[in-house]
Amino acid sequence: MKAKVVDLTNKAAGDVELDETIFGLEVRKDILARAVNWQLAKRRAGTHKVKIRSEITQTTKKFVRQKGSGGARHGARSVNIFRGGGVVHGPQVRSHAHSLPKKVRKLALKTALSAKQAAGDLIIIKDLAHDSGKTKDLKAQLAGLKVDSALFIGGSDVDMNFSRAASNLIGIDVLPQQGANVYDILRRDKLVLSKDAVEALEARLK
To answer: Which residue from 12, 21, 35, 66 puts its CA 20 to 30 A from 98's CA?
Structure first.
């Protein structure tokens, strides 16, 4: 399929042929959901922690006699039924990461690209080169592109001036092509790919 190529000023800069096996797939929300859940699970710190009975600093002396008090038979203050006691079945430090087959991860990235293309939210740009490196100048150019929430994906190396200018803009993310991932693609309204990024992603996902 053919797609138009523009520059940062939104002027036509030719056409590019997109691989339909990467940019023309059926949008499967179940695959996208699995990939996003996998990514977010890997990000979780898993540092949540409660103290169990053995970690509570309390006296272990039997504080009430075994018989004659009319109450229950207790031997320690660290049990969970007392205030300050241990917590039963509470969260412990652990990893939340789980595995996802490589084929599913690959399909999810293809599906995310296809979803943006199908929704008309994919923009192909000639390159991400920027002369001044100033946020003010880039903001004016993005207004011409009608972009206020977008992920920009460049080639293997992102232009330093462009990256510097975009770093102060809310809603704008910049990644090299090797960092392209499902979550970042879906969390922004638009996906802007450079021609180098298109070639690299097609070579990576074939």
So the answer is: 21
